[in-house]
Amino acid sequence: MSPGEDLVADTPAADGGDVEPGVMVDAIVHECATQLGALARDPGFATAIDLRSLPLDDAQRQMLRARLGQGEVRAVVDVAGPTTVDETAFAGLWWVRHEGADGGVLAEQIVVARVPELLLAHPADVAVAAVRLRDALDAFGALDAAAPDNTMEHGDG
Predict the structure, then answer these.
(1) What's residue 105's pLDDT?
(2) For the whole model, what pTM was predicted?
């Protein structure tokens, strides 16, 4: 069972009863605390809680977002629609929202990781970038050699 799946089974809504809005939010926050503890013990640990698979309405989503707060980091990745990655007020907890090109929400997760994998550069991309930057430096060097030297010599001031 993945993180978050047991949240549905453990709430009265799974039995068809009414649930106070805060009950599901509390359950998710408790799950976040458990998973964040696992990350604290193992820096390589990573998991995600799929918020779209849970019976949350907009008010509960807003309540959860308010409980987790806003951290210092925000990233936007634009591939086939925008994806926002927001650090929560708790280091290692990230709110990740994927939208389609039409603006509809495709996925929404709380990612528990030091850095969400989505933000890590792929090793092959890094290798290509290293070659491109070296080539750019070589091209800049050719331009720099043709430019007048505007540097001041240090010493006899």
Answers:
(1) 92
(2) 0.73
